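Marked as duplicate of an earlier ticket. Keeping the data here for the record.
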Amino acid sequence: MSPSINSVDTCWLLVSSSFVFFMIVGLAFFYAGLVRKKNALNTMMMSFIPMGIVSITWALIGYSLAYSDGNLFIGGLDFAFMNGVGLEATEDGGIPRILDFLFQGTFAIITTALISGAVVERIHFRAYMLFIFIWSILVYAPMAKWVWGGGLFEHLWLGQAIDFAGGTVVHINAAISAVVLSLFIGKRKDIGKLAMLPHQVPFTLLGAGILWFGWFGFNGGSAYAANAEAALAMANTLLAPAAAIICWSLLDCLYTKRVTAVGLATSIIVGLVAITPGAGLMSPLSAILIGALSTFPCYFIIMWRSRTAFDDSLDVFGAHGLGGIVGSLLTGLFISKAWGSEVDGSYLQVLVQAIAVIIAIGYSAVMTYIIASLINLVIPFRVEENAEKQGLDIAMHGEEAYTEGEGALLILERDSLAVKNLAEQNL
């Protein structure tokens, strides 16, 4: 007898998919506010373009490689070109297969978009488009298989690695690729010469708020049902970043004597990333501890990075990479059977989590370097110096985010012409 579809669970996953998709808009605003205004559109477009590219790669091959039968490392081609992805329920029942494709597809899109934060203001847009096309197939899809598709991380020799909503496959994966790509391309020409100040901090706060809103679907939807586990995941999604905000603000007061808006926005992301691996499997008090504890290494690594020549432009590693690593390790310590986990937290589980983290880091780093090296033979990743100096909005897209000066000039010319015409009519 084929499994039946649960309309309530289906409704919840439809809502959650919409939440996660909206996170991409939040990421675009979060990143764009942190760059100089001459690169604002280009930065936003690097979040939006995966909506097109990754959606299609996910439909053609990515979903199949992640979730069809295969081996521990890669899925087969059963779902390639949307074959068998229809209205029937998944093997576990509850939701239609096409909805599983949709929900997981939104994860693939935003994971790919996260990478851009480390290489803004200097990467060639066409090279970036080709990179995310290949990366989503060769890096994201296999790791999704390992984590959620019955693959490697479910069969490690010491036990199963726990990743409730994407600490490894989303955040560590994207952040390590971002680091490698940043080192491959090199730092921005103006680093150390000019102040690289955010041009629109309210955008960043808006983006952080949208991301937090969307994260309720990101974590809550990962329960795959409208149940108590989803409610727990959403509660923990509130509490962990709340604790991170407090700790980050106290650290700001201690070290800089002021609480910054950029710091507050960053702390929200750190808390959200850290709770993601175990959001639906631990107590709310544990979520508060994870949000608080994850703040310290992320805060200090970001402060340290700003004083070095390493140009992870928007601190993708400091927020997503280190936050994901710390969150994954602490998940092994804080998960509890009393809160829905199949195992209690232990030092052995922390070791299992560490093994999964190391494998994810190694695979993401090596594959990213190979992909980038091959693409660079065809399209140079680094834009020309003149284009970087001019700004990528004009150089890559022929558009500008802000044209206040030109707009005012056009209005002045229009009004002057109107006055002249009126004077001529009166004469």
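See parent ticket for discussion. The mean pLDDT is 93.
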